[in-house]
Structure formats: C-alpha cells, structure tokens
Amino acid sequence: MTSTPELAGRAGRPTATPAGPLHRPSELTPTIDVSGLVDADGGLLDRAIFTDHQIYQQELRRVFAPSWLFLAHTDQFRRPGDFFTTYMGEDPVIVTMDKSRAVRAYLNSCRHRGARVCRADAGTTRNFTCTYHGWAYDLEGRLVSVPNREGYPDRFDTADWGLVEVPRVENHRGLIFGTWNPRAPSLREALGGMAWYMDAMLDHDGAGTEVVGGVHKWVLEGNWKLSAEQFATDWYHVNMSHASALMLLAPAGKSPRDEIVHRAGRQYVDPNGHGAGFPVHPKNRFDALAVHQWFDYEAARARLGDARVEGPMTNGHATVFPNFSYLPVNGSVRVWHPKGPDRMEVWAWTLVDRSMPDEVKEAQRLYNLRTFGPSGVFEADDGENWSEVQAISRGFVTNSVPLNYQMGLGSEREDGRYPGKTSELYSDAAGRAFYRRWQSLMNTPAWYEVDR
Amino acid sequence: MSGTGIRVAALDDIPEGEGITVDRAVTGTEDDIALLRDDDGSVWALNDTCTHETASLAEGWVEKGHVECPLHASRFCLRSGKVEGLPATRDAVAHRVEVRDGEVYLFPNETSS
Lengths: 452, 113
Prior knowledge:
The structure holds two protein chains of two kinds.
Chain A: E1 38-39, E2 44-45, H1 53-64, E3 69-73, E4 82-88, E5 91-97, E6 103-107, E7 122-124, E8 127-129, E9 136-138, E10 143-145, E11 168-172, E12 175-179, H2 187-191, H3 194-202, E13 209-211, E14 216-221, H4 224-233, H5 238-241, H6 243-249, H7 258-261, E15 265-269, E16 275-279, H8 289-294, H9 297-304, H10 306-309, E17 317-320, E18 324-327, E19 332-338, E20 343-353, H11 358-372, H12 379-392, H13 396-400, E21 403-404, E22 421-424, H14 429-442
Antiparallel strand pairs in A: 1-2, 2-21, 3-12, 4-5, 4-7, 5-6, 8-9, 9-10, 11-12, 13-20, 14-20, 15-16, 15-22, 16-17, 17-18, 18-19, 19-20
Chain B: E1 6-10, E2 19-22, H1 24-27, E3 33-37, E4 43-47, E5 61-63, E6 66-68, E7 75-77, E8 83-85, E9 94-100, E10 103-107
C-alpha cells in the first residue's frame, strides 16, 4: 500500500504497485526543456506556458507530483470514516480518518478497472466500494472484498491490490498537505520562511482555526498559474480591476480614501516559489465589522508581534507554491485545481478562528461570500481577468508575444522588519520567484525518474 | 429456546441507525448475530454475515426498516430478513428480539412476530 521509497522510482513509475513486465515507452512522456520560456532574471515570460498541452502534461509529472499539495483542513475529520474527496493535480484522492484516527489519503481509483471507489464529495463511511464490479477497500486502504474471489489464480494476493496511498500527509496548523514524493522534505521545511506569514492568519490566539461547513467550487476558463501567480504577487490590479467594488465598500457618497488607494506595503518573495503581499499600516484591521469589533488586536500584537499585526495578519494575498492561496482579511483559502492547460476549478473554504463566537463566524462567512465567494464583488473581477487572458492566448501571434514581469526588478532585500527577502507591495518579485521555481521543477527529473 | 430469551445487550449499547455484533458463542447460532437499531428506536436481529459476500451487517446502515450492507449495498428487511436489493439474492435469517426494562433479549432461531 504505502509506496516504499526503494520501490517507487523503478520503471519510471511514481508508485510501487506491481507492474510485471509492463514498462512504459519513453516516447509517451517527452520532456521539454523550458529554459527558453521563462526569463526570471529579466522578467519576461513566454505565453506558451499557459496554453501548451505537452507543457501541461509535464507540469502534472514534475510540478504537481513532487510538490506538497493542499488537501483539506483537519476540522473536516472528526471521527473514523469521515472522508473528503479532492484532487492532487488531476489525480483524484480520498482523504479520510482511519480507525486509529490518523488522517490518510489514497488515490481514488480502483485497482481493478480504475473507476473511482468514492464518488461523494464528503461524508462518513466504513468502506470504499467500487460501484463498477464491487471491489471494496477499508479505511486503511486494504482490499477487503473481491466478488467471485475464487475465479482468480492462486498467486492473486489481495495484499498486493490495496488502494494506492499518498505516501506523505502532514499538516501545518490545521492545513493538511500531501505529496506523492516519498523523498520530499518535510512540509514544514518546504514551507520554509512562508510559515511565518501563514501563521499571521492561522495562529491568532492559540485556539486554532476551523472551516465553515461546505466548500465552494466553480469552473473558470484560465490556466491554473494565472490565479496562483496573482495571489503570490499582485496587489497591482486592485485599484483598477476592483474599482467598482472599492467604490461600493466606501462610505456612502464618497470615494475610497487616498490612503486606501495609494497603499504602501511589502511583498514576501520565497525561494520555493511561495509569495505574499500586504499593505502595512498601524491601523490595519479586519474589514467585517463584527470581526473587527470582536478581535483583540493588543493580544495579537503580544503573540505575533507588531510587524505581522500591521501587515499580513489582516490584509493582502498569498500563494503556497504551486496552487494553494489564501486571503487573511476574510479567511478565504482556495486551491486552483488544474483541468487542462486552459481550465481550472476553484475550490474555496472559509477559515474562521475556533475562538470566535457563532455570530462573529457568521459575519466572516457572509463577508467572505460577498467579496470572494463564487459571485463575490471582487472574485468576479478576478475570474473575468484570468478568462480574458486565457481566451485570446490561442492566437498564433498573440501567443508569441512575451509578457512583462519587470516591476520591482532588483528591489528584493532584507528590510529588517519582515523576515526573508521582501519587495514593494506593488511588484512582480514574487511572481518572478514563482516562475523561477516552476522552471526549476520542470527541468529537474522527479524522484521516480532518477535511477537509484 | 427459553421463554425469556438470552440477555445480549443494554438498549443504550446500540445507537439508533447502527448495529452491534453478538458472538455466536453467546447465542449458540450458526453465525454471529447482528443487533440492528432502526431510526425509530426499535431493535432487530439478523445473521451478521451478508448472504452475498463476507461482510458484517452490523457495520451497515440502518434506517426505515432496512439494513444496507456496508460493502456492496445489498438491502434486507429488518423484520423478516428478506432481501430487498441486489447484489444479494438470498434472504438473511431473522431472529426474534424483545426489549424489556432497557435490556435486549434474543430468541435465537425464532421468527419475529
């Protein structure tokens, strides 16, 4: 079941499942050198990375498979058998709590003919039974029932045919991530300096977070990198794209105050491709009134320090490479599931502090829904931009014209207040780092490609 | 069997909509017995092993007079054991149960009234 590091990698397969004499010809997985498609130093990008099918296939193999990918929140698993189905890249997975209360993840595909063994979004179960022929697996992934078992040869051993398990599942302050890479660094190590910024949202008071019930899911035309990149690096679009929403939220009869429009802040640039940008101001606050009035900013200053309270605790945007993003102001956390080069599915949760009274949680839920729900006044603007960019990018000439990522070139520095390298609030620095990381993974053989 | 039955569980041991297994060593039956509690609070008993494949009906889903096998979703009548949904094709054996003063008594191999 669990892929052993020794076996995973043989015959170029990412799992240790028995393959007999099967071996996949290398022509099926051509590798493209992407050196010439990303100029991270000069801030130029070739648009083919958003549209090409071979590049997309290579992303699934070399960017998604080896990386830590967001799966779910620990709050979604309270008793054995609770499960949630999601995707890692385009691979369907079941996340569940086993009988020993450990959260585990399995490939949601029967070992017999490959159908999904769980078709529900979430729930509670005792087994995962394939609806095609009835092979059934328990919460530990073991194959426990094979109809017409006597029809199989003597060498058929059910122990060899359990669900394929995601070998590494770890959580950081309630956020569960998994990776297929048995040799990946720990999740904490992979988050690196980004954890300091994430904790500004996840560790307000030591009681932790929980998710509002239900996950919003919607489909957009657009490559997954367009949204992941924006959440890493782009406050620049706010005043232009969201002008109408900002007008709407301003006091009646007035435009937004100058200090809202012309904001100063920092943008964290992580060497692993993560990024977070946030305005900095001593009076930064949560937007939802009920949340603002309930929140103890002084206690948060003592716990998190002034720099975080005045920056990434209440405000801004962030992406954990490759496709997990969040917004501290309203507790929105989301995954950009890739669905081909030109399509994504957005799956969004609302995170609230466990310590919030019910009416404050409800206020945050409604504020999130109004602003960044599937039809939120800000979210709709963003989706329109990504789909616009994608829709025209199939044009031959259009596709060949490089894009500009030069804002803040050379501005990355240690500022003595925000840890790691930071740039200005308005900058493409984290975007350049995002694509530098993407380029590096795309050009590096993954663990299963390396002979040991 | 005795006129008073075998005391096999306290009613509170069985949550509504769920079941528990009683070992055949206690009941003297050919199979373990599934005590199944319907969502109206009533308690019923069937042979525990599904008649289709090896699975415990006590682990199944109990509601509205039926139990659904946890493995392949075969469905049986709690009262009679009659099979009501494929892939099982053979009825389960039902046994009479009585609840007195919060205790559950089993009458092995007697049919439900």
